[in-house]
Structures are given as structure tokens and as C-alpha cells.
Amino acid sequence: MTIDVGTLLADRYRLEAQIGSGGMSTVYRAFDTVLERTVAIKRMHREIAEHSEQLERFRREARAVAQLNHPHIVQVIDAGEHDDTPFIVFEHVRGETLKERIQRAGRLPVTEAVAYAIEIARALGAAHDRGIVHRDVKPQNVLINEEGLAKVTDFGIARTLEEHGLTADGRVLGTTDYVSPEQAMGHEVTGQSDVYSLGIVLFEMLIGDVPFHGENQVAVAMKHVREELPDVQALRPSVGAALAAVVDRATAKDLEVRYPDTADLIADLEDVLTIEASRRGEATGEATAVLRSLPPQKRRRANLRLRRRGLLLGAVLLVVAALVFAAVQLLPDATTRGTDQRPSTPPVSGERTISLSQNAAHDYDPLGDKSEHPEDTAKVLDGDRSTAWTTEQYRGGVFPSPKTGVGIYLDVGTSTVAATRLSIATSTPGWQATILASAGGEAPPSTVPDPGWVEVGSVAQATARTNVALRTNGRRYRYYLVWITQLPPGAERVSIEALSLLRRG
């Protein structure tokens, strides 16, 4: 039941227009006659207010969100009752919902989508720190103000982590287009559920549509439980591998694989924003503001990348024709190298890329000076084929005694995985390597050979794109090492542009 525009609530708030309505409440634009400002008022439907459980949920929303004071959360100003029906007063955000923005734009610029994901994640992190899970993260509940800032609203089905009994076991809450698998199954809902929903929102911002459709909400919810998300890079090839990996990890159905909290997600999204901005040479929309908000070290890295890209652009345009010609002459697959930001070899049916953080790659030089260009290892995971990790230069193309090799390894984390393939992109084909794996502990084995290392594959002669089948036999490992044993003929170093691990399921 709605009430007439012009009604004065609590002798203070004059309703001006209805601006939204949901299953529990109607939202109005109103004027605060005391402070003389525009506000938004959410008033519970009278028939809903008659149910004590729903009334408690509504009041709980007001109490929960009133505890939160964050630039990316719509602020609660006041609460009260009118004709025995409760209402909540919020700050009024002029602009549009993120859903409306997506519907209008089709899909967002990549850097803008990442920027909004960062802002939403920051808001959810603030709520999680107070023990509050949103439980209904979707673009309809994100407002974009006139300055382009994202603000999360509608904690209407939020519940503090300490409360129990106010939501019946097995009851699915939330919009099924974005619902986490555990929420769809009626299992315990935590901050990781919000992370999953945000991953779906990020997917929609990048693609312009939700990943799953069905005949009804139950059918869609079951797809979140049973089906893998469509490959975001197949649907939008300009999305870098690093960003695709973030989407994969945020939406992982296995809670051990999914980001454990928003802090880890934010850290990776911030890294991705600097990568994507540098790839494009610019940042659009809200991405510019978010870049300025990054920690100093990341901000300096982003500025340096953008500055370098600007200085080099003119020179690149002058020589690009010559480079393309040379690439075509030298490499059979040169027409795709440099623009393909997906894993070196796309996953086969039943396989998916293992999500890795930007700091998962490490140099390995146990028989030398213990350092093999560690400052460049992240480049094999940044999705940019113009950057690379290289070995040191070895005169005559031979490792000096007693060194028998050098390498780079990937740390998948304490959850460990049974990888089935390793995909390698290199611009220095012809080298040889052994692929070693270790369940390890806090660090991999300190030398090669070592009983802690298990040989799971080999590279007889690396090509521009090398696909190595790994013999893990279902055993889970934490560390996967590319142990380079022979340099390319006539060359004095090895360059690796990208590494990707894949697994079944």
C-alpha cells in the first residue's frame, strides 16, 4: 500500500515522488523540512509490517546500515514510523543504478568496470568488518551518483554474522541472477557469498549480460550451483588474462578456491586496474578517481606505465609496419601474438584456468646467486604479452658450473591443486626444461634435485606456444616449477611472456 505524495512523515519529511518499489517497501524522494535537503525514504508496505518477522528484518536493516559510515555505502540518516508503519531515511543519491548504466551502455569500458568493482568491494569490506553480510549484491543495489561514484544500498536482507534464527534454514534469499551456489542451496552465507555475487556483477559489467538464463529463478539458481561461467575472454577478447583470472576466482564454486575475503579481491583488482589502464594508455570514467585512491606504490606504478606508454606511442606507430612484417616472416602464428591476452593455450573441454594472484610467480636460482630477475616475475601473469620475465644472460649459451639450470615457479597457495596442463608463451623458442611440482610448505624445496620435487612434465623444445600435459595423477601440489636446463641454440637467455596452469573441473 502506497501513501499520497505530499504526506508529511514524522512532522518532518514531505514525500515528493515515488522513485521505486520492491516486495517489502516503497521508496520515495522526500524533502527534509528541518534541514532543508532532499532525502530518500524507504517505507515498509503496511501488509508486510503486520508480520513480526518481516518487521524485524526491516528494523534490522536500519540498525545494521546505520552502523556503517563509508563513502561507497548509502548512508542512513534517520528512522521512524508513520501510521504504525516503519520507514528509513537515507541520503538521496542523484544519478542512476549500475543496472541502468549497463542497460544503457551495453557493456562498460574495462577500466571503468574494474573501478566500480573496487568501490563495491570496498563497501562490502566495510560491512563485513562489522559482521554484516549484504546477501543481495546486484547492480540494481548499486547507485552511481552524478560524479560517477558507486554507492551500495539496500541491505534489506542483510544479517549480522552473529545473529541466528531470523532467517529460516534452507530459505534462499537474494536475486538468483547473482546468487552464490551456497546461498542457492540454502547453506551458510558468509562474506564469500557477497564476493561471488560481486564477481557476477563484474562479469555483467564486462559482457553486458548476466552469465546464466533459465525458465525461472530456480533454474537460474541451479546453474550457479552446477555450471561453469562462460569464458569472459571468449565473449570479450580485449579482457586481459589477469582480469579474467580475478573473475574466475571470485566466482569459484569451491570456497577454498574463491577469494577468502574482499581484502584479497581488492588487492588483485587494484593490480588489474593498473594493468588494464596501461594496456589502453588511459583510464575512463570513475577509473581515474580510483587510480588516484590506490596505495602510493601501486599509484606510482600505474602513473609510470601510463607515462611510458605515452612516450613510446609515437615511436611504436612509426615502426609497427616493419615489426608486423618481420613477425609474419619469422613466426607462423605471429598474427595472433601480442593481441591475444588469454592463456597461451585455451582450455579444452572440462578444463579451466587456475586463478592466480599477481604475486604468485617467483624466480628460482638455487645453484647461483639466488636471484634471477625477481622484479620481473609478475610479468608472466599480467596478461600483457609485451612484457616478460627473462633469465640472466649466459655467455656462450651455457650455464656456468655448478649451475645446471634456472627457473620460475608458480605458487597456487595453501589450497593446492592437481594441475593438468601448463601453458607457456615465449619469444625465445628452442629451450629445454623439466616441469617439477612440490606439495611444499611455506617455501618450495631449496635446490634441484631434491626429493621434495616431483617431475610432472617436460619441454623437449619450447615453441612460441607450448602446451605441457602434467602427470599429477590427481595429486595436489602447491608449487609448479619450470626448470630450464638448456638455453635456445645460439641464444644466451630465455624469455617467458606468460604462464598459465589449468585443471580439470
Report the C-alpha radius of gyration, rounded.
Answer: 26 Å
Straight-line N-to-C gap: 49 Å
Share of residues in strands: 15-25%
**Average pLDDT, to the nearest integer?**
82
Structural class: alpha+beta
User: Mind telling me the CATH class of the largest domain?
Assistant: Mainly Alpha
Spatial strand sequence of the major β-sheet: 1-2-3-4-6-5
Coiled coil: 41-68
Binding site for ATP: 42
Keywords: ATP-binding, Coiled coil, Kinase, Membrane, Nucleotide-binding, Transferase, Transmembrane, Transmembrane helix
InterPro entries: Kinase-like_dom_sf (IPR011009), Prot_kinase_dom (IPR000719), Protein_kinase_ATP_BS (IPR017441), Ser/Thr_kinase_AS (IPR008271)
How would you briefly describe this protein structure?
The chain has 505 residues and is α+β, with helices and mostly antiparallel strands.
Could you explain the architecture of this structure?
ATP binds at residue 42. Residues 41-68 form a coiled coil. The chain crosses the membrane at residues 310-331. The protein has 505 residues and is of the alpha+beta class. It has three domains: 8-91, Phosphorylase Kinase, domain 1, CATH 3.30.200.20; 95-293, Transferase(Phosphotransferase), domain 1 (Orthogonal Bundle); 342-504, Galactose-binding domain-like (Jelly Rolls, Sandwich), CATH 2.60.120. 30% of the residues lie in helices and 23% in strands. It has helices at 46-49, 52-66, 98-105, 110-129, 181-184, 191-207, 217-226, 232-235, 241-250, 262-280, 286-293, 296-330, and strands at residues 8-9, 13-21, 25-32, 37-44, 76-82, 85-91, 95-97, 132-133, 142-145, 150-152, 159-160, 351-353, 361-364, 389-390, 406-411, 419-426, 432-438, 454-459, 465-469, 479-486, 495-504. Helix 4 runs antiparallel to helix 10 (262-280), helix 4 crosses helix 11 and helix 6 crosses helix 9. It is elongated, with a radius of gyration of 26 Å.
